[in-house]
Predict the structure.
Amino acid sequence: MLDNIQIRTKEKKKDMPTFDGDFEFLITLMFLIDTINGEKMNDFQLENYIKKLPLADSNYISNMSNEFVKSFGISNEVEVTCGLCGLVYKSPFRITSEFYRPSL
């Protein structure tokens, strides 16, 4: 899942280079949500749905995912400060191939 998130994030950044938002958070939520009210959605529908979610709901989904991971004894959260608005929030730290062998 983490590799797919990373790949899709890079694709989005390539398609929209001037966008300053966090594609990784959006795509992570897309991978975490299986159905909405019992209905499967395609990627376009799911992305639009998530973009309309209140921040509290997005954070709730992210926090519940992190709580699930913590139940296995792993904590991968880091505190991040938004460069645009100064908001301090916790975000999952993803250990991918880039962590061990960064591309140059």
The beta strands are 77-81, 88-92. DSSP finds five helices and two strands in the chain.
